[in-house]
Structures are given as C-alpha cells and as structure tokens.
Fold each of these.
Amino acid sequence: MPVEAALRYWTTRGNSDRSPTAVCPRCTSPRYEAWSRAKLQAWTLARLARLAPGGRFRRVVDLGCGTGDWAELLAPIADEIVVVDVSPGFVDQAAERLRRLSHPRWRAECCDVRRFDDIEGADLVFLGCVLTYLDEPDVLEMLRKVRSRMAPDGLVYQRDYCAARPHSKELRTDTADYFSVQRWALRYLALAEACGLRVIECRPSWWVYGDQWATERLACCGPAAVRAGSAAARAVFGAAALASRACSYTFLYSAR
Ligand SMILES: C[S@@+](CC[C@H](N)C(=O)[O-])C[C@H]1O[C@@H](n2cnc3c(N)ncnc32)[C@H](O)[C@@H]1O
C-alpha cells in the first residue's frame, strides 16, 4: 500500500479548512456525521472514564490526533496529554484547543506515528482512525511498540473503518489520490492479540449509536427501559448499517 501517498494527502489536508473526519466515501450528510460523532464521543468518553482507575488517566497519548477534538474531550480526565499527527496544520489546531483549555501538562508533536516513541507510561493510547492508513507490518510494529512502552495497567482505544470482507483495499473517493486499508474487524483483534494486547471489547458503530441514543433518551425511565430501548435502537441502526459495505468499529484493549 502506498503509505507515503496517504501521508502526503494528510499533510496537505491539515492546511485546508476541511475536517479530517469527512473522508468516508459513504459520508451521508454533515448533519448525520455531526449526530453520529456526538453519540460516539459521548459513549466513548463515558466508557473510558468508567474504565480509568478513579475516573482519570495519568498519561494519554493520542496518535493521529487530527484537529484534536478527541484530545479536547479527554484532557479533563487526563493528568498529562500528548497529541501527535503527521500534519502540521492539524497539530497546530490540536495545540490551540489544548492551549485554550489551559491544561497544566500537554504537548503537541508533528511526527509520523511510526516514528513516535514517547509512549512511556501512557495509561491510555488513543488510535482514532489511523491504523487504516498503515500497512499490516507497520500496524504490528506500532501495536508491539505501544504494548511494550505503555503502563502495565494501560488501555488502548482504537477506532477504524472495517470491511465486510477481509483485507479489502479501498480508494477513497473524495479525492481519489490515496489508499486506506479497510481490514476485517476480526483481523484487528488478531493483530492486537498477536502483539500481547487483551481484547476488552469490539463494537460496531451502529451498536454504539443505539446504546448511546437509549442512554440519553431513556435514563430517566430506569435501567430496564435503557436496556430495552438500547436493544431496539441497535436493531434499527444495525439494519440500516447492513445496507452499507463497511462501518467503523471501536476496539478496546488492555495491556494486561
Ligand atoms: C481520519 S483522521 C482521524 C482523526 C482523529 N484521530 C479522529 O479520530 O477523528 C486520520 C488522522 O491520522 C493522521 N495520520 C494518518 N497517517 C498518519 C501517520 N503515519 N502518522 C501520523 N499521523 C497520521 C492524519 O493526518 C489525520 O489527522
């Protein structure tokens, strides 16, 4: 896979005013994108805060941070936050968000994640839609490096578009000038396990949207209503997802 083409693409894209998230060829509408991202972020944040000891992380490393909107959400539950991206434009935007928060310990670095080594002691490594731009040997090397350097009680969050078929390779259609690999979700699980990470969970995006929708709407009616609403909403969102050839998956791994 021509990883260098993806790097060139992202480096220039950071200087445009387009969001780094609007790259999916099946992008529906800006309104749906904003709705689904809000659901995903609220669900993920609640999940991570529940898993973090005392609800906080000591050191968060966000690899492929984009404009830093995830880092902005994670910063309040992190003693230290480090954001890394290959695109200088995105790194500037992420740095500006963290500066505005006046977080006491943050750092933004422009670097290819394959060459970034300062993962020492991280108890949350965040990989938001970045492994999809790397070849499989690079993915293995990255996950091995992360596993060996992160804190022994640390977590890894990964999100990526996954394919309905194993290893399908897709040319992104918004610019048609670079590749990403849409792997099978099970392939990512196998790669993570081969690197010594333990799988905590793996959820398709429609599952997350349904669960979050029910939590937001039905929390006032009690846990049984949330459970029933979540199952119904997941069935609806899942059926809609069947029509699409791929969807994003959220993976959570633990170092122990
Ligand atoms: C689809 S965006 C995701 C942004 C953000 N993590 C999120 O979850 O919304 C992919 C990001 O990964 C960055 N990226 C891709 N390949 C990279 C590499 N080899 N090293 C560092 N950053 C990379 C891009 O510049 C872009 O900001």
Amino acid sequence: MKTRKPAGTPALAGLLSLVLLVGAACGGGTPAGSARIGDVQVTNATARATTDDVSALYFTVDNGGQEADALVSASSDSATMVHLMSTAMEGMSMQMREVARIEVPAGGRVELAPGGYHVMLMGVARPLKVGERIELTLKFERAGTVRLRVPVVSYSGGQ
Ligand SMILES: [Cu+2]
C-alpha cells in the first residue's frame, strides 16, 4: 500500500532531483570512467596504456531498464579509428573480430574485459600514459549517446 505524502513533499522532491541533475551535469558526483544515460550505467572504464598506436578500452555496462539495449558505436578524439571488437578462441588461436553491436539485456550486465569484448583504438595520435584520461563517446541504440573520461592504466596480456 502506498501512503499519501504531505502536500509539500513533491515540490521538495522535485527540487532535490533538480539539484542532483545539475550536480551530475557538472561531473561533480561522477567518478572518472563512469557515466549514466537513461537506463544504462557505464562503470570502471579503463584504457590500456600504449606501446604503439593501438589501445583497448574496457568497462562494465548495466542496463537497469525493462528493454534490451545495445552498444552500437564508440568514438574518441584520441584515435583515428575506434571499433567494437570481440576476442575468442578460433581453432588454436585467439582471434579479434569487429562486431556491429554488443547486446546489453534488459536488467542485465555486459563486461568488456581482456580476452572478450573491448573497444579498440587504432591510430592513436600520441602515446597514452598511465594516469592521464582520454575522452570516450559511447552510443547505445535505445539510451542514446554518453561521453565519459577514461583513466589510462597499465595492462599485461592480450586484448
Ligand atoms: Cu581489438
């Protein structure tokens, strides 16, 4: 059973949500490597420090909505080419393939991680060093486009 709130409460709640919205827009409450758009939450984004002009980005996507969504493209001003890719064993070797979309089920989670899905950067203009942050824009089919700042970290092992 829902109880009726006192008359003054809705206005106060509205004001509070407005304050939260402004805070989020200024990036005040959003940690690096995280962003939210609609029902989609991106967390723990990291970019691989470079030794050449190639890098990979990894992050977690949670879909809190009732409808399936999908990551359909990514872009960054740090690289000339940005692709969605999967890594999988094919025969005896690990193969990377470009994918058109990465599905995020309703109420579900997808992890982009070494050895699996990742966002590949090619033609990285200048070396990405540990501790700096790069800009990343992600486009989701339903939720829309979100921009985040991604910390560069050191990884060992394959992409
Ligand atoms: Cu790749």
Amino acid sequence: MSALSHDIGPLSGAAPVKQGNYPCLILNADYQPLSYFPLSLWSWQDAVKAVFLDRVNVVDHYEQCVRSPNFEMQMPSVVALKDYVPQNRSPAFTRFNLFLRDGFKCAYCQSPHELTFDHVIPRRLGGKTSWTNIVAACSTCNLKKGGRLPRDARMHPSTTPLQPSMHQLQSQGRRFPPNHLHDSWLDYLYWDVELKP
Ligand SMILES: [Zn+2]
C-alpha cells in the first residue's frame, strides 16, 4: 500500500443522520438534489436560518413545529435554493471519490473487502498519483501485484481508470443510498431509491 493518504485528502463520508434530527434535503434551483452522495442535507437549524435569509423556497415540511416567542413555523424537510449552483465542476481527487468511482470494489478481483489503493504504473517507474493511475485494490491483490507493471504481474484493472465527471460520481452514488430517508424526500430522489423503515 502506498502513502496515498499524504497525496489526497482524508476519507470523508456522509455523517449518519438520525431520525430525530429533522434533517432537511437541499435541492438546487432546478429541484435536483445538490448532491446524491453524500446526500445534501442540512440540520433543521440551518434550514430555518436559510428560510429567514430568503435563500431557499420551502418545498415540504415536517409535522413538527419550531417555536420561539416571536414566531412558529413547521420545520422544513425539503428546501430548494433560489440561486442555481453550477454542477459542472470536476470532482475532488479524494480517497472517498476514488472508491466511489470504482464502486467500492477491487479493480482486479472485484472484492469489496480490505480496500486499499494501487498505482497501476508503480511510482518507482514514474506512475503518477492521479485519477488515471490509481485504482481501488484489495490488500491481497495489492500485495500480489507488488511494485510491478500490469503486464509483468499479469494483473490488469477491469476498467481503464479515468477521471470521472461529477455526473458519473453522482450516478455511482445513487447505488449507495443513505441510512435514513424521510418520505417527503422521495419525489426528489431517483425512482429506484428505496424507502427504508
Ligand atoms: Zn483484489
């Protein structure tokens, strides 16, 4: 395993959302989620603040109310930004996004276990730490390949590693739905996302 953690950012994933927190789904101005993975969520406090700052339209809400001496409102469950945030930026080269691109599977044997990263062309032979030269690899395959070229190790990644577009990562992300989905969110997510109890 290489010292990749020095080259790209720390592993970061979606914080688990508990049902009692009244998380709010954030839609872009086109009513698509800002992000599928991690799903774009705000705390109810941030959602209420954004409503008061007039930055969002409330699309749906929880039954529960938030009260203060001066006001009362139902807690937003879905809000849409008033200003569109462009989505054509390229995804950050992070460990998490790389695993997501590769579907959390080893590029050599498809195992989802003990994932590490492999330089397809080893660093000692000039291989770069980049989207096009790093693949997810289980520790067994990583060890087996050692510091060799694919042809020398007779181990080739099942797909050619490429820089993914944001759209490609988003559609990968739909395969890994978050733990908690409020039913008011489902109209704004993909058809095949399942509602879990
Ligand atoms: Zn493997």
Amino acid sequence: MVFMLLTTVFFERDTKGLPLKENPRALLGMLKVLVRRARDDLEALFAFPLRVALLLTQDIFRFFLTFSKKEKKTLNAMSDKLKILLVGPEKAGKTTVANFLANEKGKLADGKDMPYRSTCGARILEFEAGGNGRGRDSKMQTSVELWDVSGSQRFESSWPAIMHEADAVVLLYNPDNRPHVNEIGLWFEWFVQKAGLSSSKCLVFAHRMKTAVGCEIQLRVPHILSKAQVVESDWDSDDSIRMAFSRFVANI
Ligand SMILES: Nc1nc2c(ncn2[C@@H]2O[C@H](COP(=O)(O)OP(=O)(O)OP(=O)(O)O)[C@@H](O)[C@H]2O)c(=O)[nH]1
Ligand SMILES: [Mg+2]
C-alpha cells in the first residue's frame, strides 16, 4: 500500500503530462481512488470471516437465551409450593407428625410430653422437603405447604375450601384402633377420590400409638387403600416417616 502510494506520488502524471507531485488536486483525486480500492479489497478479504463470526455470535447468544428460558422455567417449577393435606381420624397423631416433618432437627418423640389439643379447623406448616430427605442441603428440595387438618367432623363444612387446589394427600390413622380402621376409607373417599386425585397422590401412615413388646400386631389396611402407598410408623420411626414423606414429595 505504502509502496503504491509512493509510486503514485513520484512517478504518475496527470492528464497534461505533469508529475502528480506538482498538481495537488490531481494527486488528491488519485489518492482517493487508491484508498477506495484498498478499502474494497479489505472488505472482500474480511467479509466472509466477518459474516461467519457474526452468525456464530448470534447463535451463541440465541443458545444462552433459550438456555436461560429453560432454567427460568425449571426454577419457577421448583419455586412453586406443593399443597399437601394431612387428614385422618381424631387423635391419630397428625399434629405430632406434622410438627416433626416441619422441624427437620426435631424427633417424633418430642411430641410425647405435649398435652393433646384437638386441632381447630386446620393449620398450615411451610417447610422444604423432597431430595434425599436429609435436610436442606440435599438437592431438589421443594417448598411444601402441609395442611394439618382436624379430624373432627365439626369442621366438615370447611373441607371443600381446604381441599381447593390440593396437590396431594397424606392420610394418617391408628391401625390398632377399630373406629379409625372403619373411618379411614371415608377420609380416602372424601379427600382423594372426590378431589379427583389418583392413588399415587396419596401416602398413608398407619401410625401405631404403642406396639406390644415381643408381639407384632398384624397391620390392618382397608381394601380401599390397596393402591395407595402405606407406611407403618410409630414413635421410633423418625427415619422411615421422613424418608417416605420426602420420596412422596419428590414424586408428586
Ligand atoms: N404413644 C404415642 N402417642 C402419640 C403418638 N403420636 C401422637 N401421640 C399422642 O396422641 C395425641 C394426639 O396427637 P395429635 O397429633 O394431636 O392428634 P391429631 O391427629 O392431630 O388430632 P386432631 O387434631 O384432633 O385431629 C397426643 O397426646 C400425642 O402426644 C405416638 O406415636 N405414640
Ligand atoms: Mg391435630
């Protein structure tokens, strides 16, 4: 380029035959032509790689945009709370189990010395569950709204409101208590079947108040619950209750 410029300035002549260095206007015009030609050459040289680079940048940008949209969707899904109802006959241990599940460091037996107080209507406990069931560090934890519903039929009129938009149901009854065994099917009909939930959205705790030492009483599970997942529990079942609940939440 420099060589071309020098040659032009010193050796080219204008239309009248004068050297260009003696005619500034003609020299300027010639330089302009040279610069334009050089620019065209450079454009031709870099146009293709530039276009490829531009397309690649666009693709990379588009990829990150879609990726972040997907991420956003997953995060939204993860941030959605699950509404889970805990229902069953009166004095079965629902409140005790609900408090245990909500308090990740607590023990089920912490409720041993608590005086029985019938739940009034329903209470809502919010906590994280799911993953591998071993506390907040575990991956894929889900926010849970656990509705601890009174077993008293005095509150029956509020059941439709309580059931509204429930994602799943946990039934809890004492399998050694005959009235409980008779009643639990009705709770299943009301809160699972009538709500249009499938049996997979129902977890049952057959929660024993005491087990006779050395003599295992056979578990009575009413036929209607045969398709639901039934977990036996008692005061000493901390791990199995927490694990069963976490697995249930993870699969809702
Ligand atoms: N021995 C024994 N007692 C328990 C167990 N779980 C709960 N209890 C006791 O049983 C009583 C009733 O427990 P709650 O958890 O309040 O029962 P609930 O099902 O919430 O009762 P409602 O709110 O009336 O429907 C309390 O005095 C608890 O201490 C258990 O596993 N073993
Ligand atoms: Mg209660």
